C-alpha cells in the first residue's frame, strides 16, 4: 500500500508544551509543519524549486575553508566583506565612520576591516581602486596613532549593561589594535616601506598594560588575555582576542620582532587553556561574562559570530598546527550541521 493510499487525518501537534499547530497523520507517519519546527528549534530552511527539494538546517551559514594563511595574503576571505553596506558613513577622505544610536564615531576596528577588505580584493583581482582605498586606511592609521601607540575609542561603550558598567572613553580595544597591525603589516609588505610596520610595533606596549592604558587582562591570575572591551571584571570576548592574535602574528612574521612574537606566543598559550570554556556543546559562547559576573547564563554567540570563531580558529591553527585547535575546529564546524558530541 502506498503512502498516498493511507487515510489522512488532521492531528494536534504540541511542541515543548508551548507551541501548537495542526499536522497530519498518514498511516503510521506523522507530518509536522515546517513553521512549527523552525519556531521550536530555531532551524532554517530553504526550498530549491529546481531540485524539488526542501533543505532544513540548524543554520544556513557555512564556514569557508582556511588551511593556509600568510600575513601578506587574503585576510580571512575578506574579499567577500562589504563594509560599505554596514551602518557607516564615509568622511571626506573616504574613511568610514560608524553610526551609533548616540552619534557617529571612528571605530578603529571597522576602519581596519575596510582596509583589509580592499587589500584582499586587490590581492585577488589587482584592482587599483582597491589598492588606493587600502592605503587610505593604512595612512589614516599612521596619521591617527596616539602617543601611547594605539588608536583609542572616543565614546563611552555600554557593553552588556545588565552585567557590566559602561566603558568610559578613551579606551583601547585589542580587536582594533590587532586589525591595525594586520593592515600595517600588509602595507609594509606591499609598499616595501618599513615605516608602516615600525609604527605598528608601537602598539606592542598596549598589550602589556592593563586598562585604561592597555588591553591586558589576566585569566586565573596567570594567562595573558587581550580584551576587545576592557570591562571590569573582564568579559573575555573570544573573537576580539583571536583577531588580536592574528594581528600579532602578522606583525611578528613581517618584522621578526621578539616582543611581538612573545605577545603572540603568550596569547596562544592562553587560547589553548581557555578554549574549552567557550564550547557549549552545540555552539560557542561569545564571551565569559556568565563566569566573571553574576549573569548566570552563557552569552551564546549568534551563528554569524560562531562562523567568525571558526574562521579565526582555522587561521590560528593554520599557523600553529596544534592538535587541540584542530579538534576544537572540527567540533565547532560540526555544530553548523547539527552534530553535537
TrEMBL record:
Name the SUPFAM superfamilies on file: Six-hairpin glycosidases
Q: Which residues form the signal peptide?
A: none
Q: One Pfam family this chain carries? A: C5-epim_C
The GO terms describing molecular function are:
heparosan-N-sulfate-glucuronate 5-epimerase activity
- Tell me which residues make up the D-glucuronyl C5-epimerase C-terminal domain: 145-333
InterPro entries linked = 6-hairpin_glycosidase_sf, C5-epim_C, C5-epimerase
In Swiss-Prot or TrEMBL terms, this protein is called: D-glucuronyl C5-epimerase C-terminal domain-containing protein
Q: Which GO terms describe its biological process?
A: carbohydrate metabolic process; heparan sulfate proteoglycan biosynthetic process
